[in-house]
Amino acid sequence: MKFYLPFWWPDGINTHFDPFLETVPHKEKVRIWNIYNPPPLDGILVSRVNVESKPPENDDIHTALDFKGSIMGDCGAFSYIDEAEPPYDPIDTLEFYEKYGFDIGVTVDHLIVPKYDNEKEYRQELTIKNAKKMFDVWKNKETKLKLLGVVQGWNANSYATAALELAEYGFDYIALGGLVREPTENIKKILEMVHAILQTNSQEKGVQTKIHLFGIARESLFATMKHTGIHSFDSAGSLRNAWLSAKKNYYLDNVPYCAIRIPRPKDLRGKKKKFVEEHEISKDLLVKLEKKALANIRAFQKQEITLDEVLTALKEYTSVFTPPKQTDQIINEYQRTLNARPWELCDCSLCKKIGIDIIFFRMHERNMRRGFHNVYDFYNHFKKWEQNYLPSKKNEKENQQLKLV
Ligand SMILES: [Zn+2]
After folding, report:
1. CA of 13 to the centre of ligand 1 (A)
2. What pTM value is reported for the model?
3. pLDDT tens digit string along 149-170?
């Protein structure tokens, strides 16, 4: 199975960042595929909205991103989920993919979500209609672009029927969308049913239909994905959890750890900022406790002080911008992270270079490095899983429980 990483323009780091001085000398942006060799991915997924918000100087997307591997383009359906219809014309989108030299172009789809339940049939039909429109023009072109037909649905049956409709129309690569928030058991049912119906169609026609799964990279689904013939999938979860998740920010062998939040006082926002203002915490005190927390955690890294000492300093700083109960909860998480010292066990070049700094939740440069590390960890974990996978049907149960050694 091939893993695609969704990509946004700000997803880069400056290799000259100094974690001690916290300086970023110039505007260099290095992407994850420039850091790790080989890159921990099989391709990237770039949205049209992303490209057009900041059009690259070079029209060729591979040159613009300095990436030679497979690049998939889509329209970023989440960005227009509340619109009556997608803001992109299907034929214009096809031209967009060709202009930038994408390898794979995703048809223009419209997500089906519970709040627009009364529109589900309309959104599914619109998605199918757009796919067929693009297919009609694409099939007569001489192009290296592969067309990936999207299917939207609301249960196993509706996904399977729509997938069959596109396969019968001629699509040999079909994507299942809108499953990101779906419970694992439901996704399993959908994959089984889509697989069964496409299998019958493939046998009749002698053409194997490939399937892409949008936005899903759950280990609990790997075995089902594998035996239902999923060809590719994408997920931004491991990257973005580095700074978006409340507790799961750093992964080692797919086990999550909470990052240590030592924000710069000037970066305090929202509830934290309000808490500071309400309790009339002075700027001097914030700076003093922040410096103490940083000094202590670095001393802990060098094993000069105990875990209790560093936790006390972290608690002192955290408690001036966090309510007491939440402070206790997060300090428990810090204790778990610091006890395990996972950053010392990772062999990736970013962890090796900045050490404990990779688990500080502080500034874009560290948070993005942690995200890159997470993708590296996910990809290696996934590849090891795949190597250990036992393909026969009778081993399905074992495969579902298959854990890495
Ligand atoms: Zn690492």
Report:
1. 15
2. 0.94
3. 999 999 999 999 999 999 999 9
